[in-house]
Amino acid sequence: IGSWEMLLYIMPLLPLRNDDSLAWSARLAGYIASRIASPRWQLQADSWRVASELRSEIPNSRTELAGLVARARRATPGLKALPVYLQGLHQRRYESFEEAERLARRSGNVWLQISALTWMTALDPKVRPAKRLRQLLEITGWRRLVLVPSETAADAALGMTSMGERSEAVLELALTADRPNVTTELVAKYIDDPMTPAKTRLSAVNALGRVGTTHAREILSRLAQRRDEVGKAAAKTNEGPAYGLSEREIEVLSLAADGLTNKQIGEKLFLSPHTIARHVANARAKLGASNRAEAAVLLHRTAS
Known about the structure:
Blueprint: H1 2-10, H2 21-36, H3 39-55, H4 61-72, H5 77-91, H6 94-107, H7 110-123, H8 127-140, H9 150-162, H10 168-176, H11 180-192, H12 198-211, H13 214-223, H14 229-238, H15 247-257, H16 262-269, H17 273-287, H18 292-303
């Protein structure tokens, strides 16, 4: 039983790995639950199995989900929350995420609260969910969210900002989502808003340096002309390296320079080809390169 509980405890972390560990662990959990003959544990195991199938876009996952939600209707809030969340994930339905968040709050499931609030704020920003999401991000320090695509996290950062939230946690969520244009847009709003706390305004300037795109550098150069704390921070940030490539972007671009395709790089790093393509595109934007070959050359020059 101790091993089973530990397996369920780490299950929410497995989707962050971008490999097949979630599918494998869900199958193992299902096997253990069937041997123990516990309906409660079987529901938990099946919930994670369906989550894995939805994530992998397996064809019969929709039918499985309908049955899972029906079984969970009379379950306790803690058991019911994930199936309802998965229903929202499949349908992109605000009301399902709203119900999942309420159930997660009742059962003390923090990661599911954050994930549901992120989807709610991305789909239809509202003041209270946006504030609650910002608070939970600040309290937990979580930036890589469970069963939330990076583009949804970026949209949620925009949603929180549109609802008046100004926080380093919101900036960091956008940065972690790896959407340079979104981060740049947030920074512009933070710096121009007199309601933004001074410390957060300076963090926004530093975020531009971490974005590292040509556009971000141009904004930093303009901000550096200001005769205030923002101008000083911008000037200091602009003195840093010319490119703000992340470790993952450098890794991907280095493998691309060796002649590997996106699919081959993905297999090596346990990432999807789509994710690899996004890293290459972001690296190209930061380097100002027209193609991956030119980006690889520029990367080599900066390293030498």
